[in-house]
Amino acid sequence: MNHLKGLKAAYLTLGCKLNFAETASLRDRLEGLGIQTAEEGESADICVVNTCSVTEVADHKCRQAIHRLTRRNPSAFVVVTGCYAQLKADEIARLEGVDLVVGAEQKGRIAELLAQRLADRREESQACHEKEWGPLGEIKTFAPSCSCGERTRFFLKVQDGCDYFCSYCTIPFARGRSRNGSIASMVEQARDVAARGGREIVLTGVNTGDFGRSTGETFLELIRALDEVEGIVRYRISSIEPNLLTDEIIRFCADSRAFMPHFHVPLQSGSDEVLKLMRRRYDTALFAHKMEQIKRWMPDAFIGVDVIVGMRGETDDMFNRAFDFISGLDVSQLHVFPYSERPGTRALQIPGPVAPEAKRERGARLLELSEQKRREHYARFIGTERPVLWEHAREGQPMAGFTDNYVRVRCPEGAMPEDGSISRVRLGGFCDEGACLESFDPRQ
Ligand code: SF4
Description:
Helix content: 25-40%
Radius of gyration: 23 Å
Bound molecules: iron/sulfur cluster
Number of domains: 4
CATH superfamily of the largest domain: Cobalamin-binding domain
Shape: globular
Distance between the termini: 59 Å
Largest sheet: 6 strands, parallel
Structural class: alpha/beta
Number of strands: 20
CATH topology of the largest domain: Rossmann fold
CATH class of the largest domain: Alpha Beta
């Protein structure tokens, strides 16, 4: 591997936390082979792009990012992987400057493929323009991945793929069937995070609650085992389907040592008719029950909820009823996504596409509701004391952190807490245009 030593690689990741975790693991492996990571703005010998294909806009952003990278690094070896690469390998392979397209099953082998292709390229001194790609049925491997976010927070991939085939979604085509690593391997990775100084782990996956399908274990068993890992003081679950968020999981989180009162649950629509069109596996009554259970056992919990607007077949009337349902939920924030037509999905057969203007208007109403709910959540804790985990401050910005129940808090004036330390503070009023709460030393 001598031919790799001293080369520099630039990484670009688009999309979800899972992609970020996978890119970080790849970067670690390449660094282990002697390939340095290029600094911001520095030219690179290798460019790795990990793509997303969740919407048409995501595809467009990926193409733009690839063009930018290849223009900036005209002689670099360019590898493209991720959901877009799996779904449209030929399209990506034809883009100027792309040398290698790597599909989902081969993602865990990028380091080897790269080493081999770079050796070939050196001998032949020409570009490769190749694909290492296999069809959907071949996606079976679980590539372990863990990335560091804000130095103290790590993203641990516990599961990959999905068996649900919601009518609007291409993820099962891009990432394959549901699979996971073992509980033992997750515990080992969590211990490693603790040894590297990490304090908080976010459990990520495509369908996280489906953990255990390929190992005969369960998500509840996983979180029980992780809760025992010394040194990790906070866990958050990135997202969990409402039908998989069992009452036992909620009770366990409420009583656990380190699982935070913070949930992210995709609702997607507050209309049962639309949920049916989406082929989701629950109805609004089940969703409302889960929200009640969370609040029953963790009244201070932060709950983020995903909603898609403008799904084919969603009439004004359906949306208005969905809006009323969502307004009545005791949740803290909405993540609003406009429905995007994806080739190959069943949703394309549903009559009644929603006009872009109506989609925008529905999205804007939900975003306004989201902001109202977030501020209400924050306002409830003004004047109370909560533990905050302080995060590394970006240059020129005051230090900030999150409470256990996900309220963003600015560090007390004059205080200099260490990155990753936890202190109890008294929460004050809104600051930074409402994005944060002020905080005070409770002894003052
Ligand atoms: S649960 Fe549905 S929306 Fe989520 S990844 Fe699976 S198919 Fe896509």
